[in-house]
Each structure stands twice: as structure tokens, then as C-alpha cells.
Design a protein that fits this description.
It is a single chain. With 118 residues, this protein is mostly helical. It has two domains: 1-50; 67-118, no CATH class. It has four helices and two strands. It has helices spanning 9-14, 17-49, 75-83, 101-117, and strands spanning 51-53, 62-64. The longest helix has 33 residues, at 17-49.
Length: 118
């Protein structure tokens, strides 16, 4: 039961099979989110290190693509968005903001179905 963070023997003994299954189901979602966050961080690190050819520079001269974190995610703008009950918006992305994991799942399903139809 350490997977669920339950160490109290009485709580373990009184847990129903249904409750156990719900807790394990929720734990799988938590693990998926943790994995997703790890990969999101890896891509953020990659993006932060991204370079591009320097405009007007010498041959093979590069510069960082992003000058600071606000080029990727506008912190102050997003604080205002959250205060209004809106979703977080990343950089200058033209992608539609996804408000919840169910929206994400719908978008993935839609994109998968569009891919199959091609």
C-alpha cells in the first residue's frame, strides 16, 4: 500500500475493493502527469538552449533563440489570465489553449481520427 501512501493497517483493512481500485486508477493518472511533467521540463530546457543564426552576424555565428523566460511564457500576462478564470497561454503560440486534461484527450482523439482519415 506504500504506492498509495497508506501505512495505517486499520485503514488498509477497512478499505473496500472498489475504493482500492479508484485509488489505484487515480494513482495511474498521477504517475502519467509526473512523467509528462518530466518530459515537459526536458523540452523546456532544450528550448531554452535553442540557438539560431545571428542576423547580420558572421558565418556560423549564433545567438540564443529566446532572450529570457518571458519569450516562452509571459508570467504577468498569465497571472492576469488566471485571475480572470482563463487558461494559461504559452508564448506567441497560435495553438488553442486546452483548459483541462479532458480537453487534451479530446484534442488528441480528434487529431488521431483526422490522421486515420488521410
Amino acid at each position: 500500500m506504500s504506492e498509495l501512501g497508506i501505512y495505517d493497517l486499520k485503514e488498509i483493512e477497512t478499505m473496500t475493493l472498489t475504493e482500492f481500485n479508484y485509488r489505484m486508477y487515480a494513482r495511474e493518472y498521477e504517475q502519467l502527469k509526473e512523467e509528462y511533467d518530466i518530459y515537459r521540463l526536458a523540452f523546456a530546457i532544450r528550448d531554452a538552449k535553442a540557438e539560431q543564426k545571428k542576423k547580420g552576424g558572421k558565418k556560423d555565428e549564433t545567438e540564443y533563440r529566446f532572450a529570457n523566460a518571458d519569450d516562452i511564457i509571459h508570467y504577468k500576462d498569465n497571472i492576469e489570465r488566471l485571475d480572470k478564470g482563463e487558461s494559461v497561454k504559452m508564448g506567441e503560440s497560435e495553438k488553442e489553449d486546452l483548459k483541462s486534461s479532458s480537453d487534451l484527450m479530446k484534442a488528441l482523439k480528434l487529431s488521431k481520427n483526422q490522421h486515420k482519415s488521410k
